[in-house]
Every structure is written in structure tokens, then in C-alpha cells.
């Protein structure tokens, strides 16, 4: 009896440590996103030149719409803005549900592209940065490849060497120590972001979060090695069959359980702002997209008054047609637990 109980206990430990099978808990497609996500009509925390609108406004202005298995959110691309008025109308969605241990699989046809664009798919806790942030898809000004990043409070770092195909930047996830940059990993595929992503017809992003690690994968639409459960949005998945992730964040030097709380899923598109504005000209874009604040290592200002005078992002104000391709087209989002 003792031996059988011991074997049972050991087998339970093995399953909990290595089991990677999950069952689908949520499936969002088309108009279903409107029932599961809320439009956040809030001031942009990253100081972008956007005006996040509520659902009624977004639907009326066709900034959010669905047709069959297409769910689209986009920025306004027709209005010339007044320098003294609010920013360009855009959309920020937040999931109504919160998640801890889970897997998300995104099937995306198109992501926002163009100078000044800063699109993101990410997850965040209510008490930032103490409950953490996970950026699954994020970038600016069409600069490939994609970057996946953790943002935390102090005491969370990543080992310099770990099992991933992407390239690590800073390994310190503490926002206070990294000027809010966190610990990012860039994907190893050029078509993981921007025009390259869109020209290939999009692809799939997947993120697995446990108390032991966080992993992110990407497969292009043209990739012949997409796992069948990812490809088909299966009701049951096994992440052990997905190969080496491009981003791997282990708990080796970071207690993920204490640094990451319950998360909402966010889909948003901002313009200019702390990151895209700070590197706008450096990324080959013409015009002015500079903001006063910076999340991602901006230029060092000679004098604060200069920063204030350069704060008006004329590119966003005067070039609505530059945002014709600034939209997400999401085929579906599947969530597993």
C-alpha cells in the first residue's frame, strides 16, 4: 500500500512538472470579441497621439467591425487633426476575464503597419508593475522582427543562456532599472512583424504562462511546420510538441508566481508615443513624432523646453492616409487552461 501511494505521488509530481496538455476554455472570433472584450476609452498610458474611443464610437466610425471570421480594429485614416485637439481615434480592447496559468493562440491575418504605428497584443495585471506585464506581439515603425517582453517590479531577471531561438536584449525585467524597457527577446524570423508579416498572410502567435516559465512561439502563414493543434485551433493542445520557443522566460532567477498576478488581455494600437516617437527618425520615418516622455530609451534632451516644443507629432496630425494599413485583422483567439 505504501509503495503504491508513493508511486502515485511521484506520478502526480511528474504530471504537474512536465504536463503540457491544455483544454480550450475560451474561443473568440468575429463579433464574439465584442462580448468578451471592453473598449477602453482612456488616456494612453504611453503618451501616444491617439484618442481611444468607446465601443459605440468605434462601431459608428468603423474603427471596430466584424464580418464572418474577420475581426478588425484600426485607427482613423481620414481626419486631419488640430494640433490643440485630441489624438487620432484608435482602439484599445481589454478582456473581461482574467488569467493566470494559461495558453493563448492568436491567428492573425494582418497587423497595423506604417510609420508611427505601435501595435501590441499583451497581458497585464491591475497593479502594474507589481503584477507584471507580458508583451506577446509588439513593435514600432515597421521595424522587424517582433519583440516579446516581460515587465516586472524589482527582483526578476533572466539567465543569459537559455533554450530559445530568439535574441535577448536586457535580461533585467525590472522596469525601474531599465527605464521601463523590461527584458525583451526578438524573434528569429523577419516575417514575424510589420509588412513582412502581412505580405506572408499573417500567422500564429502562442504564449504559454505557468508558475515555472513563460514561452512565446511564432509561425508564419507560409511556415510548413505549424503544429496541427495550433493550425486548427484544436480544443486540446500539447505545447510539448511545439518545438523550441523563440522567447523563453524561466523562473530560475525570477519568482514568476510572485511577480505575475491575474492578467487581462489587451489589444491596442497607439501612434508615436514613448517608444515609436522616440525612434521615429532613427527608424527611417520622416517628420515629427516626438513625445516628452519615453518608455524605450529616447534621445537625451538638451533642455526640457526643447522637448516641450518638439512634442507636437505633426506626422500623425497631418497625414491620415499614412494609416490606411494601420489595422489588426484577427481570425481567432483561442485560450486554454
From TrEMBL:
Residues 15-284 form the GH16 domain. InterPro entries: Beta-glucanase-like, ConA-like_dom_sf, Glycosyl_Hydrlase_16. One of its GO terms (molecular function) is hydrolase activity, hydrolyzing O-glycosyl compounds. Residues 139-168 are annotated as: Disordered. One of its GO terms (biological process) is glucan catabolic process. Residues 141-168 have a biased composition (Polar residues). PROSITE patterns: GH16_2. PANTHER family: GLYCOSIDASE C21B10.07-RELATED, GLYCOSYL HYDROLASE-RELATED. This is GH16 domain-containing protein. It comes from Trametes pubescens.
